[in-house]
């Protein structure tokens, strides 16, 4: 007779117990997924108030947005500031676009308002504005010296700079006047002539100027480029820069814009200040690929 193995099977009560446990585990394992992410909401709905700070030229800008934690202000000629409440002086009458950008956990949003300043500030003459204007009117010219005009890979490295002889050869350039007035006006006066520049390779700039490189009468400006002729514009000055505002306004050389050499008159140009004193200043435009630098003097 063959030997047979004996298996110990669970009784029915034990079997039912295991079955119930298995079913409970299965139910727990199949419980629907619950998203535990926190709803941070959307970007803010920006708003701000403009309030007088006690004079016709001083204003307070206050962020009235709910739930913001960072606020940035674009104040036009007055640069930029941060803070939920900022006080700013606008020395000259005019209209200014004020832009506020505020941030919350959901992102950022911007809004703008127009500020109207009704009169000039009689106490506005200070800092670089005072140096440029003398609190009245001051005339600046290119310094009659070598390297008054300079272009190079950096502010102090030179690819080209005018020589002393160019002060005479480019008489129509070195006689140009850049006039700053305490009422916020900037005037460019070319004295009836101008220098048609080249592209660095002997071709007149812009290529369709239709003139010989060198001195030309102011009447020779083609209509397309007439805005580069003499004119009256506006300006603002900060600790580190000078911005002239108005189509065709420029200092030093008509083709030098804020961020590159240009082939059309610009609506505004900003120059960085390297040094400035009562009778001498050095300004520049950094293009990344090169730097134009101009040295000007005032008598």
Describe what you observe in this structure:
This protein has 299 residues and is mainly beta. It has 2 domains: 70 residues, Immunoglobulins (Immunoglobulin-like, Sandwich); 171 residues, Lipocalin. The protein is 11% helix and 37% strand. The protein contains 4 helices and 19 strands. The chain has an 8-stranded antiparallel β-barrel. A 4-stranded antiparallel beta sheet has the order 4-3-6-7, with no helix packed on it. The N terminus is likely disordered.
Question: Which helices and strands appear, and what pairs or packs with what?
Answer:
Layout: H1 12-29, E1 48-52, E2 58-63, E3 70-74, E4 80-82, E5 85-89, E6 94-104, E7 107-117, H2 127-133, E8 137-142, E9 149-152, E10 160-161, H3 166-169, H4 171-174, E11 177-181, E12 185-189, E13 193-196, E14 214-217, E15 231-237, E16 241-245, E17 268-276, E18 280-286, E19 291-297
